[in-house]
Amino acid sequence: MVLLRPLDPDRDAQDYYEWNLDPEMHVWTGNAPFDSVDAAREELVRFAQMQDVTMWAIEDRQTHRMVGRFFVCIENRDGRLIAGEGNRIARACWRKGHNREARRLIFDYVFNALGADAIESECWTANVNSRLSLLAHGFRLVGESTEYNSNHQQPMPKSHFLLERGDWKRR
Ligand SMILES: CC(C)(COP(=O)(O)OP(=O)(O)OC[C@H]1O[C@@H](n2cnc3c(N)ncnc32)[C@H](O)[C@@H]1OP(=O)(O)O)[C@@H](O)C(=O)NCCC(=O)NCCS
Prior knowledge:
The protein is of the alpha+beta class. The chain is built from five helices and seven strands, in the order βααβββαβαββα. The protein has a single domain (2-170), classed as Gcn5-related N-acetyltransferase (GNAT) (Aminopeptidase). Coenzyme A binds at residues 25, 28-29, 87-89, 94-95, 99-100, 123, 127-130, 132-133, 136. Coenzyme A is lined by residues 25, 28-29, 87-89, 94-95, 99-100, 123, 127-130, 132-133, 136.
């Protein structure tokens, strides 16, 4: 269903611009639609140049369009390799399997090739899509905090999740 590949700012800018026009994309991300295709391209260039974060374009194999992006970063924390992750899928593709497949491929890579011990993630508790998606993919809720949400201009609960290597392997 999906092809994971490096971001290609020139090729992806138009798709990225279009699906980010949808206000629903930004309710919980704190971003806003881009003013222009050039602004979308500039963000992709910036992401592609990041040193400590690896970001993939999620391409739909049928349409060959870029329908999402997925990042991973990894750090050694007291001898344990801990990865962080984050993703965004065009609304037309929500719950169609793109995110599920992208996460499976990327997490296999993170655990098997990079040797991570665990992957952590977080989301605003009210972000139902993200919270249920993380739980569906095997993450455990390990904590909650309250942080200021600049989009909603008030303190809001945030959920923190962990996926241990063993839990992923057992799935
Ligand atoms: C968060 C996001 C990446 C999740 O991707 P998705 O394609 O919507 O969801 P997934 O395919 O990963 O969902 C996996 C499972 O989680 C559960 N789930 C997810 N959203 C759900 C919802 N709104 N209601 C009920 N169950 C839900 C279901 O069990 C689902 O499996 P199913 O579709 O086979 O029933 C996507 O909704 C998105 O891009 N949202 C906007 C940006 C964003 O909030 N990013 C995260 C910032 S922390």
